[in-house]
Amino acid sequence: MGILTCGGPERWPALVPAALLLASGCGDNDESGSSSFGGSEGTSVSASGSDSGSSGSVSASSVGTTVSSSADSSSGEQPKFDVGTGVDVPGNCMAGDPGCGCTAVDILFIVDNSGSMQEHAAPTVAAFDTFVNEMIEALPPGTSLHVGVTRATGFYDPGNGGGWGGPGCEAALTDGVWNPPDVADNGVNGQQGRLFEHMGQRFYDIETDADPAPLKTWFQGALMGAIDGSAEHSNTETVVAGAAYPFHPANADYNQDFMRQQAVLVLFLLSDSPDLSPPEIPTQDFVDIVSDAKSECGDMCVITTGAIAGQCYDQPGNINTRLFDFMNGFGAPPPSWINLQFGMVPDFTGVLGTALADVIGSTCANIPPAG
After folding, report:
1. Residues with Cβ < 8 Å from 235, sequence gap 6 or more?
2. What tens digit of pLDDT does each residue of 168-194 get?
3. pLDDT in tens, 285-324
4. pTM beyond cutoff 0.85
5. CA end-to-end span of the chain, whole Å?
6. Structural domains of the chain, ranges and CATH numbers in brackets
7. pLDDT of residue 37
8. Whole-number pLDDT of residue 102
């Protein structure tokens, strides 16, 4: 994982023993008391998504790289997908083919807008062009694409004193009352699982052979708005809840038409923190919200990826395993992800492209045509 780097003692959350933080790494402390571990700059971690022998294990990779999934693990070979060249991906499922059940992809970005994420705001927004290019180039021409953004915050009321630390990535100092949208609507754009509305649109609808320029304009503005840390109400990081509640019945009217049953759903989690939802809520409850919404297509139609706190993903001794459990809760491990660390400039190249290669290389080909 590399050598962990630390800020000064003034960065520790109050009441969290410094020994615990020193034992597990170090952190930055945002204005709400939420901290994130640091790591060596530029190191990325990826999951091998379809190697049947990996059991979803995580391996440290070289700086700036991700591991792509294999389309055929039985041969023992691990082909690397060239991002942006969908025609090279194994499989014969193409948009418009009557024998192909998948002609559409819905991509949702779940954006942590806590104080500690603000250092990642500029490079994330700067990467919007990369994200859009990979969405357009990795999918077959004519694929119907929905792109949406939601915030990973707003689930505590007021809940601005949440924090985390210690070797187990456990929540600490979490104040406020758990306030999901089926309990109350806090009215904040893009929170509690509502899609972030920008330029009068709650998501962008485009076909992949259309001019991507309007999508780029909308997506950049939506990302900038969603990641802005000055939003009202809770900034406590609840990225898993943010990924689940867009598909809860309480948000069905607000998010209407974003998710389509016969489309692959890609969840891109973007957070430098573990999930700070109440520990007593089982992760399976969040998985079930998504699974129930995609019941006609099934869990195979849900793919997770993103840039997350790698120290809190599949690490021995972690008490809070919610990130790993959710991202591996839909039948297959994430085909790609990177470790978003304090002090690093994240390189998002290939992360989304690898996930989309998995979509067209395997997932779409296995979805039965609509009856």
Report:
1. 30, 31, 32, 34, 113, 114, 115, 153, 160, 229
2. 898 876 578 899 999 999 999 999 999
3. 999 999 999 998 889 899 999 999 999 998 888 999 999 9
4. no
5. 48
6. 102-161+173-366 (3.40.50.410)
7. 31
8. 66
Report the distance separating Cα 65 and Cα 166, nearest Å.
28
**Side chain identity at residue 78, one-letter code:** Q
Q: Which one is predicted more confidently, 29 or 112?
A: 112
Task: Count Cβ atoms below 10 Å from residue 55 Cβ, excluding itself.
Answer: 9
How far apart CA 333 and CA 324 sit, in angstroms, is: 9
**What is the token pair recorded at 306?**
């993103």
| Beta-sheet pairing, 27-29 with 35-37 | antiparallel
Residue 242 tokens, joined? 């943010």
Strands 302-308 and 338-339 come out as parallel
pLDDT value of residue 134: 93
CA distance 36 to 235: 14
* Tally of CB atoms within 10 A around 208: 20
Question: Which conformational region is residue 192 in: left (phi greater than 0), alpha (psi within -120 to 50 degrees), or beta?
Answer: left
3-state secondary structure the chain: CCCCCCCCHHHCCCCCCHHHHHHHCCEEECCCCCEEEECCCCCCEEECCCCCCCCCCEEECCCCCCCCCCCCHHHCCCCCCCCCCHHHCCCCCCCCCCCCCCCEEEEEEEECCCHHHHHHHHHHHHCHHHHHHHHHHHCCCCCEEEEEEEECCCCEECCCCCEEECCCCEEECCCCEECCCCCCCCCCCCCCCCECCECCECCEEEECCCCCHHHHHHHHHHHHHHHCCCCCCCCCCCHHHHHHHHHCHHHCCCCCCCCCCCCEEEEEEECCCCCCCCCCCCHHHHHHHHHHHCCCCCHHHEEEEEEECHHHCCCCCCCCCHHHHHHCCCCCCCCCCEECCECCCCCCCCHHHHHHHHHHHHHHHHCCCCC
Q: Which residues fall within 8 angstroms of residue 44, CB to CB, at 6 or more apart?
A: 61, 63, 64, 65, 66, 338, 339, 347
List CB contacts of 73: < 8 A, sequence separation 6 or more. 50, 51, 52, 53
Could you read off the pLDDT of 77-135 as tens digits, one per residue?
Answer: 332 222 223 333 334 555 455 555 567 899 999 999 988 888 898 889 889 999 999 99
